[in-house]
Specification:
5 helices; single chain; mainly alpha; 51% helix
Length: 84
C-alpha cells in the first residue's frame, strides 16, 4: 500500500486530484484498498483532510463507499483519520 501511494505521488496526484467521476484517492482506497492504504494516504497528506468528506459524482463519500462495500477495517481507518 505504501508503494502504491508512492507511485500516486510520483504520477502527480495531489490535494485536488479527482478523476472524471469526481473520485479522489480516498474513494479508491475505500472501494479497493485496505486500512493500510488509508493510513498511507493520510501520512502522505494526499488529498488533505477535506478530501475524506468529498462527494463523488454518485454523491458518496469515501466512508459511505467503505461501509457499502463491506470494508469495516477501511471504514474504521477513515473514521480514525477524521472522516464523518
Amino acid at each position: 500500500d505504501d508503494a502504491l501511494v508512492a507511485r500516486l505521488l510520483a504520477l502527480g496526484v495531489r490535494d485536488a486530484s479527482v478523476d472524471d467521476r469526481g473520485a479522489n484517492p480516498y474513494h479508491y482506497a475505500a472501494r479497493y484498498g485496505s486500512p493500510a492504504m488509508v493510513t498511507a494516504l493520510v501520512a502522505a497528506k494526499l488529498g488533505g483532510p477535506a478530501a475524506l468528506g468529498d462527494l463523488d459524482d454518485a454523491d458518496q463519500t469515501p466512508l459511505t463507499i467503505a461501509r457499502a462495500t463491506g470494508k469495516p477495517g477501511v471504514a474504521d481507518a477513515l473514521v480514525a483519520a477524521g472522516a464523518r
